[in-house]
User: Which sequence fits this backbone?
């Protein structure tokens, strides 16, 4: 089960003006570069923490409903289930009733509890699609400040060292790793 990004975040955790002020940049010549660095830094922080920072929609595709009627959602944090569909053999979708799916957010990762009768897919593979809204918030202010600051530090580091090939360029800088550590999702 590999989640597929359906709708990326509409904003970044760090605005262009805020990033330029942090970098002490006047003028607009570097806007595209700074915007690209912000997006790349967000993606790296999300990957390192195992958490989505801002609201974004992801799709989970299944062949069949799990027999234990519990599905571990491989994303975090999960805000809500947007919609679930079961596909007929010809691809026609049937929307699953909202009350048939309940998020158990007492765990991390979150469990999706399957309640009551569920329609069965008509296809042998990829017959169930579940869209979930993930992320701390739709608003950058709702993202934990240490994670926003990790983005800020990465943008500054990458902006100042453009084109410099460092030996440790692949490793997450220690100061950034320390900011992410309390939010890092444990993997077994």
Assistant:
């Amino acid at each position: 089960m590999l989640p597929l990004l359906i709708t990326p975040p509409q904003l970044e955790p760090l605005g262009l003006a805020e990033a330029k002020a942090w970098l002490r940049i006047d003028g607009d010549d570097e806007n595209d570069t700074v915007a690209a660095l912000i997006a790349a830094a967000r993606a790296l922080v999300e990957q390192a923490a195992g958490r989505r920072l801002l609201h974004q929609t992801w799709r989970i595709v299944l062949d069949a409903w799990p027999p234990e009627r519990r599905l571990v959602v491989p994303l975090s944090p999960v805000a809500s289930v947007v919609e679930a569909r079961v596909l007929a053999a010809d691809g026609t979708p049937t929307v699953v009733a909202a009350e048939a799916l309940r998020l158990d957010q007492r765990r991390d990762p979150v469990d999706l509890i399957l309640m009551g009768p569920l329609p069965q897919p008509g296809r042998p593979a990829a017959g169930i699609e579940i869209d979930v809204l993930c992320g701390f918030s739709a608003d950058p202010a709702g993202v934990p400040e240490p994670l926003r600051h990790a983005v800020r530090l990465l943008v500054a580091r990458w902006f100042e060292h453009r084109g410099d090939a460092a030996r440790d360029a692949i490793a997450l800088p220690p100061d950034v790793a320390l900011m992410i550590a309390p939010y890092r999702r444990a993997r077994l």
